Amino acid sequence: MAISSPGVGSNLDVNSIVRQLMAVEREPLNRLDTREVSFQARLSAYGSIRGALSQFQGAMSSLASAGRYQAASASSSDAASVSASAVGTATPGSYAVEVNALAQSQRLVAAGQATSSGSIGSGTLSFDFGTISGGTFDSTTGTYTGAGFDSSGSSVRTVTIDPESSSLAGIRDSINKAAIGVTASIVNDGGSSPFRLVLSVGQTGQANALKISVTGDAGLQSLLTQDPAGTQSLAETSKAQNAALTINGVAVTKASNTISDAIEGVTLTLVKRNVGTPTTVTVARDTASVQTAAQNFVKSYNDLSRTLTTLSAYNPGTRTAAVLNGDSGVRSLQFQLRALLGQPLSGMPADLRTMSDIGIAFQRDGSLAVDATKLSKAIEANPTRIAGVFAALGTTTDALVQFSSASAGVSAGSYALDVTQLATRGSSVGTAAAGLAIVAGGNDSLDLTVDGVATSITLAARTYPTAAALAAELQGRINGSPALAAVGAGVQVTVAGGVLSVTSNRFGLASTVAVNGGLALNVLFGGAPTRTDGVDVAGTVNGTTASGSGQTLTSDAGLQLRVLGGTVGSRGSLDYTIGFAGQLSEFAGKQISSDGLVNGRTSGINRSIADIGDQRTAMGRRLVDIERRYRAQFTALDVLIGNLSQTSNFINQQLATLNGSSNNRR
């Protein structure tokens, strides 16, 4: 008889028996699940460590900039007269600033008109910027840099007044649209001819006075002609004037009331005159920024340390261990961090080589803390070197040698510098004194190549009062060349004994000035000028030949120095240090890089999880086979027991029949 359902033939609960047997067989699979949960927890923990290290690296990277430890502050005893600000290059000290005159711009007012809409005349206005002295006007070349000013080099700017713009309002609008550095406005003074045109120069300074030449209709000429040495149709209500002041008794004149080149690293803003009551400007080191940086350094380290400790801790009271308790990777991170902070810095003074020298020390619980008093004393004692405790810092013994940068391969230490050749600039020098008369179309053009860039210029036609004025015009025209401006090239034009010299602003082999020709060649230079090309700086760093480019020397390891001048020969040394923040930033970056510890650990954990998945798949296939075998065996047993039961029933029936027959015979 066929068995249609397990247990029917034997009355055994085959399904229950198989389930219980399979539950035993699945115990290894459950253990795999438990292991996977553990690995996933460790993977999550290392994700937390990666995040903490990334945040730590960002904090250390921001603290590894030397500039944030070299800030300076400036205060004023009377900000209503003189205000001040300072940057890190400022030298601490006290400065007495007395303002005798404020810089101001020129303002001119035209004669009144009955209406602002009536026609006055058309023509061309030529605005020439320059200096007025004793009734004479001397053009200024290339000094005006107001908003919208094209700075092409010449002091003359032109504005065309079309017939449709010949009214007072039209003249105003035409001037303003030209954006030449002069603002025009109309003021109604309430008189019989109330409408008056006011011209205001946008930039202060005595070199920005106006000379206005007019060609065209007589009405336009009579209204706006302004020649300091001749006809003056406009009234001057404010003259172009430089600021005049004294700084610690030294007389200073500047074209602007904002002065950033009188005291190194300090910007003065002149507000009003204070004759007789000088304002005291005090420059000091900004120690607060260093204190803040130190606190941020300590906090960032403690945050990372707390994360590592929490993930690897063991609580003896509850006998519970954190997910990474005993993990060698965490122990390695903790050990290396403490080792980095415990080693002395190279290239630093003896009293600034360790964290404890500036008041940062480990506490009993493994955290860092700042002794603010000790830190303040360290800042005061080493204001220029304190940055090296945290950041990469290069300090030279020669004032004309500057540290520029260092690549990651440069080690901290002292580097000796020897200069065998100073960088020079390319130049072309005239062979005779320059002529001062420039004639339009006759001798006003010049072709030249500066730093490999060719350009052509046209000088303003006039007879220049001095060779210096001609040099200023030439310099402005060259530097205003669009071709040169596009690549940042420029020149300086100087005069010695009437002879002009054109020198590139650039240093090195790429620095060249070649005067190629043009109608002005003879009048400016007396013929073909003498050309000298620039050369690169050359020398050695720690006895090894360095490569030179312009004024920059680069060692084979990637240490860059700028040699600004001086002499050839030994130029002292550079002390280079990589501060703790710089070292820790690099360390953290390595740990979370593709071949770093964290990635190695997470890759290993992921491989273990993948292996568990493979084992689970193989075990799942085996369990299917086992269950199939169990069911086959119990099905066979069920059939056997069913058959035996039928046989037993048959035998019992036969025996019962035999017993009945036997009883009947009796």
Descriptive notes:
The longest helix has 69 residues, at 597-665. A hairpin with a 6-residue loop joins strand 8 (182-188) and strand 9 (195-201). The protein is α+β, with helices and mostly antiparallel strands and 666 residues long. Helices cover 34% and strands 29% of the residues. It has four domains: 24-67 and 286-391 and 580-613; 72-102 and 244-285, no CATH class; 107-241, no CATH class; 427-532. The protein is built from 13 helices and 37 strands.
Globally, the shape reads elongated
In terms of structural class, how would the helical and strand content be classed?
alpha+beta
| Amount of beta strand | 25-35%
Radius of gyration: 45 Å
Strand order of the largest sheet: 21-37-23-33-34-35-36-22
Kindly summarize this structure in a few lines.
This protein is of the alpha+beta class.
Tags for this entry?
666 residues, alpha+beta, eight-stranded antiparallel beta sheet, five-stranded antiparallel beta sheet, 13 helices, 29% strand
Map the helices and strands:
Layout: H1 14-25, H2 27-63, E1 72-76, E2 82-86, E3 93-101, E4 107-109, E5 123-133, E6 136-139, E7 156-161, H3 168-178, E8 182-188, E9 195-201, E10 209-216, H4 218-224, E11 235-238, E12 243-247, E13 250-254, E14 258-263, E15 266-270, E16 279-285, H5 287-311, E17 314-315, E18 320-321, H6 328-342, E19 360-362, E20 368-370, H7 372-381, H8 387-390, E21 392-396, E22 401-406, E23 413-421, E24 427-429, E25 437-438, E26 445-450, E27 453-458, E28 462-463, H9 467-479, H10 482-487, E29 491-496, E30 499-504, E31 513-517, H11 521-525, E32 530-532, E33 538-541, E34 544-549, E35 552-554, E36 559-563, E37 569-578, H12 580-591, H13 597-665
Antiparallel strand pairs: 1-16, 2-15, 3-12, 3-16, 4-9, 4-11, 5-6, 5-7, 5-10, 8-9, 12-13, 14-15, 17-18, 19-20, 21-37, 22-36, 23-33, 23-37, 24-30, 24-32, 25-28, 26-27, 26-31, 29-30, 33-34, 34-35, 35-36
